[in-house]
Amino acid sequence: MKESKKSDSDDDWVLPGDKIAVIEEFLPDETCYEQDGGIYSKIFGRVVTDTKRHKITVIPKNPHRSIKNGDLGIGRVEFMKKQIASINIYYLNQENLMIPISAILHVSEASRRFVKNMYEVARPGDWIRFRIIRAAKPVYVSLIGDGLGVVISYCIQCGHELKFKRRNTLECPNCDTIQPRITSKYFGKPLIRNLRPSRNETR
Ligand SMILES: [Zn+2]
Question: Ion ligand 1 — residues with CB under 5 Å?
């Protein structure tokens, strides 16, 4: 097992899912998990151990960088209620965050026009482009502004990726349903599609 040190050798870097220790040696903290007697990293970062206290942790490559009001980000809708949606921010100012930051979107920040409820805005699993309007926790985002809104979306009936039909209206090429979303002008654009983290490919 590596001792804690501040070298830049590649050995120190681990990816999510990498085995970093065995359970007899260390107690995992919130950056790692135990499985079948092994300790595995949850994040991309550097392993640091404290052998005296039997502690092990992974320091993220990008620790929570500072968020500022007005920053632009891309994230995924995790769950929603009528008035609010919970978002995981994966990109901030085009930088890939190793640990997503959770944020809230309120229906009043979905569009300049009146939107009755969140189900007209986005659905869980959709990717949205937004602006940070409250950088302190809890972080709040807004879809009001140029180029903001849903950029990747999935059918609520069959899960197929939706195609753009017209502004704020998407169509499922698989089951032909028409579904409302607040769409960004970047909806389905290659630039946005390439930003999608690989964990989403299994959807
Ligand atoms: Zn469908």
Answer: 155, 157-158, 160, 172, 174-175
